[in-house]
Structures are given as C-alpha cells and as structure tokens.
Amino acid sequence: MNDAIKRLKSVRQRIENACFAAGRQPDEVSLLAVSKRHPAAEVAALHRLGVISFGENQLQEALAKQKELGELKLDWHFIGSIQSNKTRAIAEHFQWVQSVDRERILKRLSAQRPDSMGPLNICLQVNINHEAQKAGARPEEILQLAALAGGLNNIKLRGLMAIPRMTTDPREQHDSFRQVRNLFEDLKNTGHDIDTLSMGMSADLDVAISEGSNMVRIGTDLLGKRET
C-alpha cells in the first residue's frame, strides 16, 4: 500500500505541475489508471485511495476483474482494439469505450448496449500520425464518424482519444497533440457536445496537458511494473 500511495502522489504531482505550467487548474484533468496485466487487488488498493476510473485493453482479463470487484463503484474504460465479436460484451460491461475507430463498431455498440444501462460513453480514436501499426481512424475520417455517432441510440459521443507517435523531439510531440486538439475543436465547432480529450501517458503527459488534454492514461508510473 505504501508503494501505491507514493506512486499515486507522484503522478498527481506531475499532473498538478503540468497544469500550473500551462495556466490550468489540476481539477481540469482526470486520471485514468491503466490496469491491464495488474491483479484485481491492485485495482482495489487504488480505489481505496480515491481512484475510480480504470482502463483495460484485454476483454477477458477485464471481465474477470469486474466480477471480482463487483461490489466496488468503478468506471471501466475499454481502451484496446475492438473486434466485432467482442462488441456485445464490451457494450454490456463497460461505462466507456475509448478506442472506436470505424462505423461497424459504432453501430454494433449502439445496437448491443442494454437500454437499462444508459448511454455508453464513446471516444473516437484518431491515428493522428497515420502510423500503419496503430489502430485509430484517420483524421479525415473523424468528422464522418462523429456525425454517425450523433445519430445512434444508446451511445454518447464524449470526444477523442489519441496515442501520437513516440518521439523525444518536443516540437514533434507538441505538434501531434496540437493536431488532435484542433480536431477536437473542429468537432465542437460543428455542433458536437463533447468534453473529453484523452491523450497523454506516463512519458508525455506534461506535453499533452499543455496542449489541452483533460484525461491522461497512466499505467506503469501508477501501478508499477506489469505482470508478464
């Protein structure tokens, strides 16, 4: 528990420092704990420290944790690549999906979301640097996907998620995050009621926050080294 307290304090301090440097308030940025390949006990430990949002990218692992931690009030975010045969389970067991990148997945999540659960929160994943090895819609596809999402039942478009190209060049980092932010603003200007810009991880959360991110996804720096 002591290690968890130290890591959480360190991450929150980084977020606070990045916000102050950018002229923002720390409460503008929410923390998503990426708990993939970490046991349910570590999720429970962070929950006791006040963390409520957890991201998973492997469906079966996530479902097992959800079952074990069913008595806790947690917000589960699916952040991995989505196969069509997994959409029903995702729609039925998550509060958020941050990795939607094509029409077929949007339509299936909408059709398979139980009415009793309320709308499923959706972020469209954008492949801002057109990297062949990464998931995500191309930037030029986002407006069309957002328009489709706005007309579907049982889902609510909340914003964008991105994992820009990893680089040590600060100018390239800022440019990539700025492009995502501009696309986010384009959506707002065309009438979409969105509020979530999910970008920034352990290595680049400072730059992401400086460019407008209001949700950072933190794994190793928060939960320690993952199990193999």
Low-confidence stretches: none
Rounded to an integer in angstroms, the radius of gyration calculated over CA atoms is 17 Å
Q: How does the helix and strand content classify structurally?
A: alpha/beta
Oligomer: single chain
Quickly name the level 1 CATH class. Alpha Beta
Task: Name the overall outline.
Answer: globular
CATH H-level name... which superfamily? Alanine racemase
The tally of beta strands, per DSSP, is 8
Summarize the structure in words.
The chain has 228 residues and is α/β, with parallel strands linked by helices. The protein has a single domain, classed as Alanine racemase (TIM Barrel, Alpha-Beta Barrel), CATH 3.20.20. The protein contains 9 helices and 8 strands. It has an 8-stranded parallel beta sheet with strand order 7-6-5-4-3-2-1-8. α2 (40-48) links the parallel β1 (30-34) and β2 (53-56). The longest helix is centred in the N-terminal third of the chain and has 20 residues, at 2-21. The mean pLDDT is 95.
Topology record:
Elements: H1 2-21, E1 30-34, H2 40-48, E2 53-56, H3 59-68, E3 75-78, H4 87-93, E4 96-100, H5 103-112, E5 120-126, H6 142-150, E6 155-162, H7 170-189, E7 196-199, H8 205-210, E8 215-218, H9 220-223
Parallel strand pairs: 1-2, 1-8, 2-3, 3-4, 4-5, 5-6, 6-7
Helix pairs in contact: 4-5
Summarize this structure as a short list of keywords or feature phrases:
9 helices, globular, 228 residues, TIM Barrel, alpha/beta, eight-stranded parallel sheet, 8 strands
In short:
The protein has 228 residues and is α/β, with parallel strands linked by helices. The chain contains 9 helices and 8 strands.
